[in-house]
Amino acid sequence: GLFLTLRPEPVLGVRADERVCAAAVGPYGPVVVVQNRASGSRQILLNSRQRLSGTRRALASQRHQSWIPLLFCRTPERVVTIGMAAGISAAAALDFPLKELHAVELVPQVAAAAREHFGEWNAGLFSDRRAQVHVADGRVKLGRLPGAFDAIICDLFYPDDDGTAYLYSVEFFAACRSRLTPGGVFCLWLPCYQLTPETAGIVVRTFADAFPCAVAVRANVDPLQPVIGLLGAATPLPLSDEALAARLAAPEGPALAARSPFFRSADTLRLLFVADLHAAEPSFADHPATTDDRPVFAFLGPREPRGAERLFGFPLLGWIGTRALRPAYPSCDLGATAPQRVLAALRAGNHLYAAKAAQLSLPGDRRSDAVRIQQSETYLRQAVSLWPAASAFADEGE
């Protein structure tokens, strides 16, 4: 009995290769900061199962989650981010010349962990005079903040969370659209690896219903944990060569390019474009929309995807990539840029992702290492033949 009483209990959800940096308990369950013993990468573990944010190789994706939507804003000055977790993506918004940033986090212990254990990556969020951190329900807080915003950015929401469906509903999207300035952008990031074609289709259908201009972009080229963003606006999004080059030529452009190869030129930036949701074939109209009074997502979202149901690796390309194979972009302002150029870059981006997916060796994969390497190199060559700028990623990750 004495042995059982004094024996330290393992923290649920913590892996064998991780150490616990800090732990706290609140109304939303235990919040634990863990660090990988080998890589030093940190994450926040919420309620023993949800892994929030992350450092090391996850940094680029999180920065992109602010950089990409702000790049499509005509004048990003007032910004709201909902779901800050470790605060890395929210802090990245401060790389732009904002006047005001509101970062909203639901769980008090998560906000405290972000401040105390992720300062190396999010220090500006707690020290910059332009930024305010709010511990509150994101939907409620947005309704109480005064004025209109140039960008509203929703970070990754865990599908199993109670209330997530109300952040994917028609009513919430409509409320966000009503709070945008002219030329403003709403962005919703989806953790595709936690979704199925059915649940992701519900969100995309609902999003496209709410925004007359809606496109999909990628935050990373990670086939294990792919993150897709939905950008919505009342007017066509600027996607011409001239518009992209002008945005990258802004004072903040060189700093972004130094930390992400995708931001080095308009051509590399185009590799992040995935689809125009209003030109998708087949469309997402067969999926039901989720609303406040009929929260379809609340019933289907919590079901854990199994096997090929998960939208990662090649199944993700089959779900979204095959719907965007014609040069039609009603949600975009292309200026003098030919639609065929956009399509070539889009296809090259898909091949770049496929090159990464081909490298994976998952359970049941009978391919030899030589075959995997050969397939990956073939996809990469196809990407470069379609879009020479893809060669910048031959030896680098993201």
Structure overview:
36% of the residues lie in helices and 20% in strands. With 398 residues, the protein is an alpha/beta fold. The model has no long low-confidence stretch (mean pLDDT 92). Helix 4 crosses helix 5 and helix 14 packs antiparallel against helix 15. It starts with a helix and ends in a 12-residue tail after the last helix.
Tell me the total number of β-strands. 14
Largest sheet descriptor: 8 strands, mixed
In terms of DSSP E residues, the strand content is 15-25%
Structural class: alpha/beta
Give helix % range: 25-40%
H-E string: HEEEEHEHEHHEHEHEHEEEHHHEHHEHH
**What is the rounded Rg?**
21 Å
Widest sheet: strand order? 7-6-5-8-9-11-10-13
* Low confidence ranges: none
Shape: globular
For the terminal residues, how far apart are their CA atoms? 52 Å
Number of helices: 15
User: What's the mean pLDDT score?
Assistant: 92
